[in-house]
Amino acid sequence: MAEINSKADGKPMIEFRGVAKSFGALKVLERVDLQVAKGEFLVLLGASGCGKSTMLNLVSGFERASSGSIWVNGREVKDVDPACGMVFQQYALFPWKTVRENVEFGLKMRGVSRKERAKVAQYYIEMVGLKGFENSFPNKLSGGMKQRVSIARVLANDPDVMLFDEPFAALDAMTRQVLQEQLLSIYEKSGKTIIFITHSIDEALMLSTRMVVMGSKPGRVVQDIANDLPHPRTADVQLSQRYIDLKRSIWETVQVEVMKGLEAGRL
Questions:
Q1: What is the SS3 string spanning the chain?
Q2: 22 alpha carbon, distance to own chain's centre
Q3: Which of 24, 88, 106, 153 has the most CB atoms less than 10 A away?
Q4: How many CA atoms, within 13 angstroms, populate the side-chain half-sphere of residue 102?
Q5: What is the pTM (predicted TM-score) of this model?
Q6: CA-to-CA distance for 205 and 227, rounded, in angstroms?
Q7: Do 180 and 167 contact (CB within 8 A), yes or no?
Q8: Pairing mode, if any, of strands 193-197 and 161-165?
Q9: Are 192 and 30 in contact (CB under 8 A)?
């Protein structure tokens, strides 16, 4: 299998240019300069409150920067951007719609024909491993299955960028591992540019092509690491010296930032 890193072609898909964000007197982000290449799988790490989710909201257009600018695929983000698809921690499915209807929803809103949206929905339902559950309602699905429906719904809209806000945090450890493996497979097949938020260093190491550690409030980039671990990333990778070295380096940075936040009363 070719390494996933080869999908990043070096062209900036996402750019943060001197971005700052405040909510009233609370400064959440301070002069963030960051580029994400097309096809890259970037994981954001950092203590609670360091602005990770705010960064996703800025990229998607749900929030506006206080200063600076965000660019997606060569266009400045000024409003909610259809080029970005968000997968939330809490699924955000329509409970009265079936799996197929949830996945088709965005296509229906765009006026895609019934025949075409059924075809597209089926393709992504099968990609996330939910063939046979097309007519099931969300209350009949496990948490992991609901999250896969959310991922299929975003993929069906064919966004340039996929944004994941701690999508597996509420799942048990075994389900989380299975979905990590499935997400890597989906990434390989789709070649999408991904920004993924997690508090788990292990999850970051297993998924990413690159990891960025954010400092405590106000949020800023304090560490930027290319993830050169080989693929496929099985449990054996976690026993390698390179894995251990990367984890130690990230943990030391996160620990310093958490202590700064505690001492300053920001956490």
A1: CCCHHHHCCCCEEEEEEEEEEEECCEEEEEEEEEEEECCCEEEEECCCCCCHHHHHHHHHCCCCCCEEEEEECCEECCCCCCCEEEECCCCCCCCCCCHHHHHHHHHHHCCCCHHHHHHHHHHHHHHCCCCCCCCCCHHHCCHHHHHHHHHHHHHHCCCCEEEEECCCCCCCHHHHHHHHHHHHHHHHHHCCEEEEECCCHHHHHHHCCEEEEECCCCECEEEEEECCCCCCCCHHHHHCHHHHHHHHHHHHHHHHHHHHHHHCCCC
A2: 22
A3: 153
A4: 29
A5: 0.89
A6: 7
A7: no
A8: parallel
A9: no
Sorted by sequence, the CB contacts under 8 Å of residue 245 that are 6+ apart come out as none
Using CA atoms, how far apart are residues 5 and 208, in angstroms rounded to an integer?
9
Residue type at 35? Q
Distance separating alpha carbons of residues 60 and 114, to the nearest angstrom: 27
Burial of 132 (0-12, 13-18, 19+ CB in 10 A): exposed
Structure tokens at 28: 């959440």
